[in-house]
Amino acid sequence: MLKFCSFTAGTLDTINWTLLKKNHPQIGYKTNMSDQKRVFLVDAFALIFRGYYAFIKNPQINSKGLDTSAIMGFMNSLLDVIKREKPDHLAVCFDKGGSVDRVEMFEAYKANRDETPEAIKIAVPYIQEILKAMHIPIMVKAGFEADDVIGTLSKQAEKEGYKTFMVTPDKDFAQLVSDNIFMYKPRFGGGYDIWGVPEVQEKFGVTDPLQVIDFLGMMGDSADNIPGLPGVGEKTAKKFLTTYGTMENLLANTHELKGKMREKVEAAKDLGLLSKKLATIMLDVPVTFNAKDFELDQPDMPKVTELFNELEFRNLLKNFTKTFAIDTAEETGASKNGSEEKIKATPKKETLIPEGQFDLFAAPGTGSVSEEEIASGFKTISTTNHFYQHIDSPFARTLLLRNLMKQTAVCFDTETTGLKALEVELIGIAFSYETGKGYYVSFPEDQAETQRILEDFRPFFESEIEKIGHNLKYDIKVLSTYKMPVKGKLFDTMIAHYLINPDMRHNMDVLAETYLNYQPISIAELIGKKGKNQLSMRSVPLKEQTEYAVEDADITFQLKQLFTGELENGNVTKLFNDIELPLVSVLTAMEIEGINVNTDFLKELSVALTADIDRLEKSIYEQAGEEFNIASPKQLGIVLFEKMELVKKPKKTKTGQYATGEDILSYLAKEHDIIKDIQEYRQYKKLQSTYVDALPNEVNPKTGRIHTQYMQAVAATGRLSSNNPNLQNIPIRTARGREVRKAFVPRDENHVLLAADYSQIELRIIAALSEEENMINAFKNGEDIHASTAAKVFNVPLNEVTRDQRSNAKTVNFGIVYGVSAFGLSNQTDLSRSEAKELIDTYYETYPKLKAYMSAQVDFAREHGYVETVLNRRRYLKDINSRNAVVRNGAERNAVNAPIQGSAADIIKLAMINIQKRFEKEGFRSRMLLQVHDELVFDTHKDELEIIKPIIKYEMEHAFKMSVPLDVEVGIGENWLEAH
DNA sequence: CTAACGACATA
DNA sequence: GTATGTCGTTAGC
Description:
Keywords: DNA damage, DNA repair, DNA replication, DNA-binding, DNA-directed DNA polymerase, Exonuclease, Hydrolase, Nuclease, Nucleotidyltransferase, Transferase. Pfam families: 5_3_exonuc, 5_3_exonuc_N, DNA_pol_A, DNA_pol_A_exo1. The strands form 6 sheets. Strands 3-2-1-4-5-6 form a 6-stranded mixed beta sheet. A 6-stranded mixed beta sheet has the order 7-10-9-8-11-12, with helices on both faces. Helices cover 49% and strands 11% of the residues. The chain is globular and about 95 Å long. Helix 3 packs parallel to helix 5 and helix 32 packs across helix 39. It is an alpha/beta fold. The chain binds a DNA duplex (11 and 13 nucleotides) through helix 28, helix 30, strand 16, helix 35 and helix 36.
């Protein structure tokens, strides 16, 4: 068999040169400029870690629950190198047992690194298996780090006349760079940078790459725990290097330094020399560069295929086979270059649309795969044939509408001037109803004209045609400000994916990359990063607006086709169609409605709070004997525990600060009166900053009301969440906090606020699901469940239950829902650890079926990899079979909690949909305003009060039938607090 | 200017 | 022990 390296130099030159020019016009290198032989040494762990963290927000979990992120990341990088470079010599270097020498020198060396993530640990054996199958040599030397192995091999290869490329993102390697040794730094998402001597000189401000060692020694490296010189960072290190050249020279001339810096550096001379040693890559590892061993050979295709299949690396396998296929083709002379081969695989269609010509009926072409795609692994707009048309004349709009009306399903996506749906202006709407094809209708700044153009499309929006979108709630809200209703069935790809995998993120960019292997134009590229200097979409040229907007609609349209099947696979189609999609409309209506807030009242409240805060501040300063920032946990910790020495052994947080949380302070309250003041101060500060002062700023100037946003695809259990502002965490527990609720008032004097609460819904659900008769009967008899539990657990008559007993029973009842542990319970109550354990044991004896149910949930999760709610909403628990007990226990608590919290969420969502339906059917003037997990709040017209009250109660109590009755308490008042 | 952290508000 | 979101401080870019 021939090898990769058997191509003619000419062909390779051409390909690589084009790639390089495309990605790095500033770099003059090619990896194979001369006839010199090339060897690539790959730093395995660095690439594995990098790959793992690249996927951290979106871990790659295969159907067996294996986290393959690290393997995938590494293989992508490796394959990318092979594909680009066709190296003739290549080896992959691993660490084994860390560096014996360095640890001898400095005990803390790499000591404070976090525990290696599980996914990385399991990755190594897989990767080594794959490498073996690919016939790629693996270099490991026990007691040495990969750095040292690579360093030694590079220098040996250089002597033998090779050009060496060290494939690693780790800047430490810069010290090895020479005329024949280069760093080859893979970039995220494909591409790479090559650092030769000039690059190293520039990046580190050195004349000789060896000075990189001095540089690292001076500034230190927290990842490797190289201490460095105190007070010396990047800037100072560069300055020193320019002046002194080396660490030794600096240390010999410290008398030239000034002030504090001189003191610090002089005191740390030994540390400096040690740091330099630690940063030095060893060049005398007992390994030998034997060119023959490193020659790249043909992979064992069946074996690699088997491994990739096992890991479910479908795209990677395709990619791998493709790389390999080109090579054989070239060897046999069947094809001269890669792109020709690709074109054959996906022939171009005949339909060519002349630039600028208006053609609504054109079929999209199919693209060839370009070098850029090979580079990043993702398709992009420039590698994909597409037909995106800007629509800007009345005639074109007429034609577009005519075509839209012929469809059964159309995807649309609005472009606007910002993120607040109810305050933005419409800039454009993209439509797509066919893969690779779409249209962009743009709107002028003149709002009257915008309204007129939009009216052209009213027949479409009001039609029964299915509307596809990504986060449709946003688009519908924007259109509502132009009085344009959106009717017909909806399909929201964001919500579809939320049901397919609730633990993932659902931005369209991620979905496009994951499901379509396609990287969309990034919004940041178009209008800049958010925050400062971000441009409006209006400032983007229409041509680019069209490409960006229609691409989104096109992708969304394609995702819908895929997700229809995925929903079916997850058995959540019904949940999607019957609950989540109808809920989109309900939430849209609630958000548009908003709630009335008495800002004058809040202003008064703020004044009162300020007075109290000032008083407490003075008192605290006096008792502490100094002024400091009480809001800074860091400063507060020092005052309490170093200056005042309130306690012998203070608790520390994970970052080494003194812990000053509420639980610690309550415990300390008996030690000193200052604690009480601090607790009060904290409470009032929180109230003022988060609620009293913040809420008035959230009032929409047009409506005079507060419009929260409900996030429907965030909480992994199926709950909603609320933000901008969060109205699901308005205070209620403390007297002072409760005042804030008085600010939430009815829309006018003809209305009152109505609040309807499920009583103990989660406990009722767990009672019903577990079929625990003892608990079910207590609910059926309308007993106080916590008192009833106390009576049973402490074996006393119901009417003799003490307050403490009830309180402890209540804590256990809640704990059960969260997945109790004795440790957690004893923290929450004044019980000791063993008392807590005893209480839990008795509890399980009292309610034996509860225990059985919980175990059954865990078993189910272990077997199927997920748990589900009463409406089949799934939560996947990848860690349920983890060997790490802490991680596994966490997953087990989720297995118990998710179905309960999630079923409660399902039930209130059902109730909301049914209530909204009846409101619309009967034409009530009352409105549903807020949802707070187990509570709904309404603006109720006084005339409708008596009709609506029983309707709400009935719909909530009968939303879902269980063996336990649901109970809803309804309250009415002139503000939210009164309504409770 | 941004991100991480600690603290704390709710169900 | 579950699920969230927001604020002020602080460290790092």
